[in-house]
Amino acid sequence: MLLYGTGDDAQSIRLDELVMWYGYRIIDSANASDYIKDDADGFYVPEGEFEKLVYGYFGLTPEHLRESETYNAQEKAYVTPTAIYDLAGTEYTITKTDYEGDEMKIYFDLKIADKDPVSRILTVDVQNGRIRFVSCK
Asked: How would you classify the pairing of strands 71-72 and 44-46?
């Protein structure tokens, strides 16, 4: 959903996509090697670190997140389901923003690689300096 799909709420985001989203957040960081385990593909992200950020942006609880096959209870970590590679060229153009109370809608066109752009609307809740995902359609 984060790149290709849509969803009515955070619960509809596939959990493996959230883990990959986090992996792409850290791939270019100076400490990316801290997330690698002996010759294993993918990143191992400590549960507390991942759960705190995902709860902040998406409001998803650890109980929900740990239902994912990407959660490794023995390691107390979330593991990217595949190795992290360069993403296809992705471009977006914000075409409009609307505010209504604590809700902001961001209208944008998303173009991935050589595919035709698709129009999307990202809705977020903005309260007390926090931004939380509501939907992406």
From this structure: unpaired
Distance between CA atoms of residues 25 and 99, nearest Å: 27
**The two three-digit tokens of residue 30, written as one number:** 């100076």
Which residue type is seen at 72?
N
Q: CA end-to-end span of the chain, whole Å?
A: 10
Torsion of CA 43, 122, 119, 4, to 10 degrees: 20
pLDDT tens digit sequence for 96-121? 999 999 999 999 998 877 788 899 99
Residues ≥6 apart with Cβ < 8 Å to 56 = 130, 132
Distances (CA, A) of 74 to 6, 77, 117: 32, 8, 42
Conformational region of residue 113, where left means phi above 0, alpha means psi within -120 to 50, and beta covers everything else = left
Q: What is the pLDDT of residue 110?
A: 86
Residues of the chain with pLDDT under 70: 1-6, 83-89
